[in-house]
């Protein structure tokens, strides 16, 4: 058998193997979806959503738009590898089609074109193709060199750290890193011997020819290239590089409406877990680094789910602030994934709330539920009562003396079954009172009342929305003060519920609002989060202090927030004065 | 729940006869529990304690004095709301202690 | 004859000044307020013997007349620098050259608004022990609503022994202050029920334990071991508290008319400014760091700078006077080496 007949076989075997494993996994993941999700996929398959997915795959999978927004150098690196390699394949195909005069030619002749086509053939566009392929290869190589650099010095990328690797990852990484340098050498060697490239590679080849015995080196190098490709393909499904096909799969499934179900760990979890490219952007976004917690960031949780080595110390040591989710270029729903895992881990824990006897509900139009935390910040409670008084509300202060918790802290700890019992009890009370509106001053309560309570006739509002309405309808009048404030977006209210503008509108009616660099979706977390069960008080202090330091640089008179837990956490640092929205409204309210 | 030992008959606390498995497990994973001074601030603010006979401070004492029989029924009442943690003057991470107790009770055989 | 500058004209500063002047040194006191004796002016009676604080003020006023001490009121230290063995202290447009400097900047009472759940400055009838002393002077014991209180609670450990306030230390003198004020309140309001909520009762000095016993025996003060976690206001204007009676192991709720918070001693602000100007070390708690706990409490990390009084650690009036005399002695020993 001649060399040219067998040297591409390692590549072929690897590609076939890879293709087989990937399809097998996609099918397995699809079968494991819930019934509703499967119906969703079938319904949406022949709709515009599929076209959207194709475009999104190009936009994110190849061009990495979202990553560019977060970190330009990282985005360029990924784009050059992904898009560059993609273009090499496409343009290479057109080159070979043009040479052979037909679209149907032995596939290996396009992958290893420069080996097979040694004469300087004159086929349509051959000069263009020669230059194009070579420039594309240099484009990809620029990304590869950036990757080398980043592995050794992530600071130069403006990134604080880079992900740690397992043993298998090293093999795949080395294989990947060698592909394009090997291709470069192979093509330049061929160009050196046969001058079958563009003047660029021909020149490089000539230079090599000057001191290397290229004729004997050709065959071993092309063989090495083929073997390297084969190794990479075989290793891919077992390493982080599975993200290349998995990411595309995820884009399609997501656009077709498949969603992660918190209470059911099914194969969609795997579809998301395998889509993580370990790019490291989530590590950078995580504030826990400032407190020295470096092993529980999203990327590590995903890795641990994959290897089934997830421990409580990693799973529960997360503020669930959502900053990592905001910047993930693949859009993996990491917060929900964590909650799913927390539910799995705590499934067997017991709880019993039989002692919750439903007391008599008072009939009223409006209910105020202060929440556990507001009782520890009585200034907010008192301010809210004054506001309700001024607005003349027919109010029932539901948890004035006794009330259970809203249930969300239990959910954040994964104990959904237990939370359901609390929710059932509270819900009954609220419905019994006949109220049409439920007002809360705590974003944690707000989220659970909206999303998990079944009260379709009751409107749940956060006090910032309610106060804004009162101002707009003229029920309360405010004087303008000459103080300056910065507004801190609480995680549960901002990224968690999408309420960014109402609190700001209220503040602007009372005093000057100073804009900050990190706010709205990019707002910091105060560190007081109930979602993190493992962090110590000292570590929380570090996080709060760092955030206060940043606020200080704007020199505000007040830090205004809309969450009692944020207020308590920030007030502990004893630096700037922290006030809740309700407090500044009451301080500047004109009493009739 | 059969803990594999017979309960102490007398009302005297006998420090050598304790079952310390759950205590050791909790202390191993939450060191801040060591500094509790039993001031009672946690119990005072407890949401569940407001509605029923549940005492957070006593939970810790029960652990330390080996009274694990009642631990299961008591810890079930915790709503994990976090108020106790927010008032504790020694900074004990009480929510984690509650969760670890629940976990230890489920995995008691493997401790 | 050596020159000494003393920063702070409270009781520590005054006593140190007198002791040093007695040894023939030329002493200057720099005090930022418009009068001497600092916090002592605010107190009514002192524990444990109910001596009027004005008697101590008068004693020192007389003592000061015996010496020729320069007193600069309404003055703050702008800058301080050392040149060899001499310290230059700048205040206003005056420069003092001193062979030794004594920092007697004292303390501040913990700002109880930082413990928001206790409702200070949110609910009307929540006051600190400092506010109560003022009331003793005014002989005013009515609630803000004008009512005579039927039940008063005194809450210990506000802002001390509390990680949430970043003050891990014990402020030492608040417990005995609470007991003293309970007795005084009972004397003024014999029909009022008075309860003290404590974590531990620190009755550390001579006659303190006897005072505690007296409070129980003669004044029927009730002592409940439990930390108060929340204060709330009822619709009738009365306050409610939530606590746990740890000794009976059950939560406790009650309605009351007035709450007195025993705020701890802190040195965060003014001592930190001075410490930075003189480049002396502070502990994490904010108090000045002594060279040796046993043998040299008043000696600081910087040559020629000493300390006296509550800027070193919480202490009572009696201990402040003793400490001031001991610091003066340490200054003398130092001056003899120059």
Would you mind describing this structure in some detail?
Chain A is mainly α and 592 residues long. Chain A has 28 helices and 8 strands. Chain B is mainly α and 111 residues long. Chain B has a domain at 36-110. Chain B has helices spanning 21-29, 41-45, 56-64, 71-75, 83-87, 94-106. By secondary structure, chain C is α/β, with parallel strands linked by helices. Chain C folds into 2 domains: 3-107 and 267-337, FAD/NAD(P)-binding domain; 110-264, FAD/NAD(P)-binding domain (3-Layer(bba) Sandwich), CATH 3.50.50.60. Chains in contact: A-B, A-C, B-C. The A-B interface holds A 312-313, 316, 346, 348-353, 355-356, 372-373, 375-376, 402-405, 407, 409-410, 413, 415, 418, 422, 530, 533-538, 565, 568 and B 29, 32, 45, 47-48, 50-52, 54, 72-73, 76-83, 86-87, 91, 93, 95-96, 99, 102-103, 105-106.
Question: What's the SSE blueprint?
Answer:
The complex is a heterotrimer of chains A (592), B (111) and C (338).
Chain A: H1 3-6, H2 9-31, H3 35-44, H4 48-62, H5 65-70, H6 72-100, H7 108-111, H8 113-116, H9 126-152, H10 167-194, H11 199-209, H12 214-235, H13 243-255, H14 267-273, H15 281-285, H16 298-307, H17 312-315, H18 323-327, H19 334-345, E1 366-369, H20 378-391, E2 395-397, H21 408-412, H22 416-433, E3 437-440, H23 443-451, E4 459-462, H24 463-472, E5 484-488, H25 501-510, E6 512-513, H26 537-552, E7 558-561, H27 564-572, E8 577-580, H28 581-587
Parallel strand pairs in A: 1-2, 1-3, 3-4, 5-6, 5-7, 7-8
Helix pairs in contact in A: 2-12, 2-14, 4-13, 6-9, 9-10, 10-11, 10-12, 20-28, 24-25
Chain B: H1 21-29, H2 41-45, H3 56-64, H4 71-75, H5 83-87, H6 94-106
Chain C: E1 3-7, H1 11-22, E2 26-30, E3 45-46, E4 51-52, H2 53-65, E5 70-72, E6 79-83, E7 86-91, E8 94-98, E9 100-103, E10 108-109, E11 126-128, H3 129-138, E12 151-158, H4 174-188, E13 193-198, H5 208-219, E14 222-225, E15 230-233, E16 239-245, E17 250-256, E18 258-263, E19 265-266, H6 269-278, E20 305-307, H7 317-337
Parallel strand pairs in C: 1-2, 1-9, 2-5, 9-20, 11-18, 12-13, 12-18, 13-14
Antiparallel strand pairs in C: 3-4, 6-7, 7-8, 10-19, 15-16, 16-17
Helix pairs in contact in C: 1-2, 1-7, 3-4, 4-5
């Amino acid at each position: 058998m001649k060399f040219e007949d067998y040297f591409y076989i390692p590549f072929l075997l690897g590609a076939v193997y890879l293709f087989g494993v990937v399809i097998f996994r996609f099918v397995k993941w699809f079968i494991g979806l819930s019934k509703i999700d499967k119906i969703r996929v079938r319904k949406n398959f022949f709709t515009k959503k599929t076209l959207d997915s194709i475009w999104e795959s190009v936009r994110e999978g190849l061009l990495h738009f979202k990553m560019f927004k977060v970190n330009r150098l990282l985005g360029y690196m990924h784009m050059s590898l992904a898009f560059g390699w993609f273009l090499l394949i496409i343009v290479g195909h057109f080159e070979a089609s043009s040479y052979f005069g037909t679209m149907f030619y032995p596939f290996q002749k396009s992958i290893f074109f420069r080996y097979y086509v040694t004469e300087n053939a004159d086929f349509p566009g051959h000069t263009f193709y020669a230059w194009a392929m070579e420039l594309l290869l240099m484009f990809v190589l620029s990304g590869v060199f950036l990757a080398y650099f980043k592995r050794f010095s992530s600071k130069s990328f403006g990134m604080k750290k880079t992900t740690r690797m397992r043993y298998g990852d090293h093999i795949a990484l080395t294989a990947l890193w060698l592909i394009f340098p090997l291709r470069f050498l192979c093509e330049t060697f061929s160009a050196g011997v046969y001058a079958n490239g563009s003047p660029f590679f021909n020149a490089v080849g000539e230079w090599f020819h000057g001191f290397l015995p290229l004729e004997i080196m050709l065959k071993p190098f092309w063989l090495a290239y083929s073997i390297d490709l084969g190794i990479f393909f075989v290793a891919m499904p077992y390493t982080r590089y599975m993200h290349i096909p998995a990411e595309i799969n995820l884009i399609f499934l997501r656009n077709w409406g498949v969603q992660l179900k918190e209470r059911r760990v099914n194969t969609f979890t795997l579809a998301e877990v395998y889509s993580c490219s370990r790019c490291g952007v989530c590590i950078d976004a995580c504030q826990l680094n400032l407190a020295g917690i470096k092993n529980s960031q999203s990327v590590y949780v995903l890795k641990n789910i994959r290897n089934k080595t997830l421990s409580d110390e990693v799973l529960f040591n997360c503020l669930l602030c959502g900053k990592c989710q905001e910047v993930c270029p693949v859009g993996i729903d990491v917060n929900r994934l964590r909650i799913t895992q927390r539910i799995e881990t705590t499934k067997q824990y017991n709880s019993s709330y039989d002692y919750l006897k439903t007391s008599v509900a008072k009939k009223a139009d409006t209910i105020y539920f202060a929440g556990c935390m507001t009782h520890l910040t009585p200034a907010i409670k008192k301010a809210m009562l004054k506001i309700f008084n001024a607005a003349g509300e027919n109010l029932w202060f539901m948890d004035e003396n006794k009330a259970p918790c809203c249930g969300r802290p239990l959910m954040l700890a994964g104990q959904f079954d237990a939370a359901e019992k609390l929710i059932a009890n509270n819900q009954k009370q609220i419905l019994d009172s006949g109220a049409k509106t439920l007002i809360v001053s705590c974003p944690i309560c707000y989220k659970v009342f909206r999303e998990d309570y079944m009260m379709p006739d009751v409107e749940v509002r956060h006090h910032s929305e309610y106060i804004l309405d009162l101002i707009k309808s003229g029920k309360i009048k405010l004087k303008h003060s000459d103080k300056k404030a910065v507004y801190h977006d609480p995680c549960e209210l901002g990224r968690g519920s999408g309420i960014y503008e109402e609190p700001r509108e209220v503040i602007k009616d009372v005093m000057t609002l100073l804009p900050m660099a990190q706010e709205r979706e990019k707002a910091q977390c105060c560190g007081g989060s109930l979602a993190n069960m493992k962090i110590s008080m000292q570590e929380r202090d570090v996080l709060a202090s760092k955030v206060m330091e940043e606020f200080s640089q704007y020199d505000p008179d007040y830090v205004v927030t809309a969450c009692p837990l944020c207020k308590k956490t920030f007030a502990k640092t004893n630096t700037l004065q922290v006030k809740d929205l309700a407090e500044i409204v009451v301080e500047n309210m004109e009493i009739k | 729940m059969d803990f594999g030992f017979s309960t102490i008959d007398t009302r005297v606390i006998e420090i050598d006869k304790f079952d310390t498995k759950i205590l050791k497990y909790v202390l191993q994973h939450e060191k801040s529990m060591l500094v509790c001074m039993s001031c009672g601030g946690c119990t005072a603010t407890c949401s569940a304690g407001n509605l029923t006979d549940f005492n957070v401070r006593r939970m810790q004492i029960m652990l330390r004095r080996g009274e694990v029989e009642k631990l299961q029924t008591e810890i079930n009442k915790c709503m994990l709301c976090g108020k106790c943690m927010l008032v504790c003057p020694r900074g004990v991470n009480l929510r984690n202690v509650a969760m670890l107790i629940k976990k230890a009770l489920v995995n008691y055989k493997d401790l | 004859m050596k020159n000494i500058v003393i920063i702070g004209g409270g009781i520590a500063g005054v006593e140190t000044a007198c002791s040093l002047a007695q040894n023939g040194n030329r002493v200057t006191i720099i005090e930022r307020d418009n009068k001497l004796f600092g916090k002592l002016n605010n107190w009514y009676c002192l524990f444990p013997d109910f001596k009027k604080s004005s008697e101590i003020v008068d004693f020192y006023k007389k003592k000061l007349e015996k010496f020729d001490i320069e007193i600069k009121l309404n003055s703050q230290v702008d800058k301080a620098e050392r040149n060899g063995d001499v310290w230059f202290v700048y205040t206003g447009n005056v420069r003092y050259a001193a062979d030794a400097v004594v920092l007697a900047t004292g303390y501040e009472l913990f700002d109880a608004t930082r413990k928001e759940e206790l409702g200070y400055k949110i609910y009307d009838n929540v006051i600190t022990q400092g506010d109560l002393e003022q009331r003793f002077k005014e002989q005013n014991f009515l609630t803000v609503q004008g009512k005579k209180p039927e039940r008063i609670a005194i809450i210990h450990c506000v802002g001390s022994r509390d990680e949430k306030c970043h003050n891990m230390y014990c402020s030492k003198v608040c417990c005995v202050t609470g007991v003293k004020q309970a007795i005084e309140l009972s004397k003024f309001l014999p029909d009022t029920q008075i309860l003290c909520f404590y974590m531990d009762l620190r009755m550390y000095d001579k006659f303190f334990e006897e005072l505690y016993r007296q409070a129980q025996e003669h004044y029927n003060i009730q002592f409940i071991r439990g930390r108060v976690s929340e204060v709330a206001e009822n619709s009738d204007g009365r306050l409610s508290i939530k606590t746990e009676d740890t000794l009976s192991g059950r939560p406790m709720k009650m309605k009351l008319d007035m709450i007195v918070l025993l705020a701890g001693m802190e040195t965060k602000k003014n001592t930190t400014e001075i410490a930075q100007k003189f480049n002396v070390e502070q502990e994490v708690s904010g108090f000045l760091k002594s060279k040796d706990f046993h043998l040299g409490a008043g000696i600081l990390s910087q040559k020629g700078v000493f300390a006296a009084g509550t800027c070193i650690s919480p202490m009572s009036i009696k201990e402040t006077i003793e400490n001031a005399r001991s610091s003066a002695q340490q200054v003398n020993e130092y001056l003899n080496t120059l």
